Amino acid sequence: MARVDLKSARTAEKDPNKAAEELCNALGSGTPKLVAIFASSDRDQRELNRAMRERLPKETRLIGATTCGEIDNTGMHEGTVVAAMLTGDIEVGIGLGTGLAEDAVAAGARAIERAAEDLGVSPRDLDPKKHVGLVIDDGFKSKKEELLLGVLDKAPSLILVGGGAAHTNILSPDSAGTVHADGEVAANAVLVTLIRTKANWAALRSHWYTPTGQVVRITKVDETCTRALEIDGQPAAKRYADILGVSVDDLEFGKPNGFARRPTALKVGREYFIRAPVTPLPDGSIAFANLLEEGVDLELMLLGDPGAMTRAFFEEELPRRVGTPTASLLFHCTARKFFAQTLGEAEKVSASFASAPPSAGFNANFEIYSGFQINTTLTVLAFGSNDA
């Protein structure tokens, strides 16, 4: 039987050595194939990495990221470090691509080439049934769509899932997301972890929205392709506000009746990938979190029950896809955390993680799913067992 299992531990200890000791003691003895650490950004990441690396077996691979909150089956936490230990039928290759802001495509290509070489395979020979790519980038560089071009250039059928390394101060222009790649710790970088397994696995995503059937068209964008100047041939912010029946000032993401309640989504087959607008700008345009293309139709979505929908995802959809799930790594949009707080739903959302299989993860800075940058979403890499 092929199977992957996960055990997690969490500590509020700030001293790197004491934190590593507490985590490793809680995880127990043995030689795990992979350990992932998701650490509050106020920790000394290099010292934490060193302390963990010293205590783990040499054969154990180590990855990680800074967070805007850490997640395990007891819920969402702040100011802690969560560690996940994966054991069983799993082989791991790790690749780091630096210089993300300067050339994101090249950084993505370097990361997957190094990860594939580490795993003893060419990127072109990656089998999408046996391999999956876990991608964590410095989310503050806003380069996901470009880096994904590099990652998928030689492996276009590879499934990817992940999210951006985050920071507790997501609004500061000086904030950066830091990733861990064995003994290396870097910002302005992308981490690709290739996993090969015969166990059941699936990359999944969950959001709180339902489609409405109402479609808007992006009719004019700016030269950066990040601002919608016109929607349906009209000034973008005014058009969106008119559709929602609110003022332009009420649109800002995070306000209770604006973009966060009625975001847009790109329909791909039967799936809806949330690609939400973020803020209306003084010139009447709208800044989006992702790249835009003129002539693209986006469907307006409607907010549902955040806690109930997240719990149903863990209890119903995830088991349908994986069978009996035994492990999951979680990349939870930081905006979901803050909007849940705005709605007074944060405790219910936090409690929903008790319904997940053995899990660890963090509040991320935008998410990756099937080669797309998305937002306001929970992306998941889940494992189970089979008889192969």
- Content of β-strand: 35-45%
Which geometry do the CA atoms define?
globular
Oligomer: single chain
Number of domains: 2
Average pLDDT number: 96
Please give the alpha-carbon distance between the first and last residues.
6 Å
Task: Report the total helices.
Answer: 8
Q: What structural class do helix, strand and pairing data support?
A: alpha+beta
> What helical percentage do the residues reach?
10-25%
Radius of gyration: 20 Å
Q: Tell me the total number of β-strands.
A: 27
The main sheet comes to: 8 strands, antiparallel
Low-confidence stretches: none
Q: How do the strands and helices of this protein lay out in sequence?
A:
Blueprint: E1 2-11, H1 16-27, E2 34-40, H2 45-55, E3 61-67, E4 70-72, E5 75-77, E6 81-88, E7 91-98, H3 104-119, E8 131-138, H4 144-152, E9 160-165, E10 179-181, E11 184-186, E12 189-196, E13 201-206, E14 209-221, E15 227-231, E16 234-235, H5 236-244, E17 264-268, E18 271-274, E19 277-280, E20 286-288, E21 297-303, H6 306-322, E22 327-333, H7 334-343, H8 346-352, E23 359-364, E24 367-369, E25 372-374, E26 378-383, E27 385-386
Parallel strand pairs: 2-3, 8-9, 22-23
Antiparallel strand pairs: 1-6, 1-27, 2-6, 3-10, 4-5, 4-23, 7-12, 8-12, 9-24, 10-11, 13-26, 14-15, 14-21, 15-16, 15-20, 17-18, 17-21, 19-20, 22-26, 24-25
